[in-house]
Amino acid sequence: MRKVKTKTEIDKASLRRKIIEQALILAAQEPWETVAPLEIAQACGVTYGELCAVFPHKADIVRAITTDLDRQTEEAGLVWDSDTSLRDRLFDVIMERFDLATPHRAAHISFLKAFGWVKNEICTDISQVRGSMKAMAALAGFDVGGRLGELRLAGLCAVYGWVMLTWMNDNTPDLSKTMAALDQALGRAQKLANYAGI
Fold this sequence. Notes:
This protein is mainly α.
């Protein structure tokens, strides 16, 4: 039986969406590390306390945006034939994620430039990237478990990070530069993995 959401839950979900929307707008306008939580609260028309009730820490907002992006990629409904190669599946998944992030590219670039800005959040930032890539690997059917899983996951993170540098400056209407960079990066990663036996 489906659980019916209470008014409080609905209001909290609505406020969550509003906070995320305003955070994306503000991050696109100024460096994320200079955006204060109070500024976000004021843009939403709520108090600082109301914002903190949904997102206790500023980093929680970026985490929610990243989690939503992962979920949207998973819900995109990517379907492959049984003979579709792993490389092609990874290509489709990663490009879908870039496609979904593109409407808010300026904000995501702002988040990226603030990566590790606060020393005690570096581990959290790295963990967040690994978590996203682990979700993308699972969606593509890429095994990152077992003894060699960490190496495969690290390789996928490296591929994503490298291609992201191209995506950040790709103004082509179909992200053709990003697609070319991703295809090349996956090809190199595959050759390296085959050579290393991973």
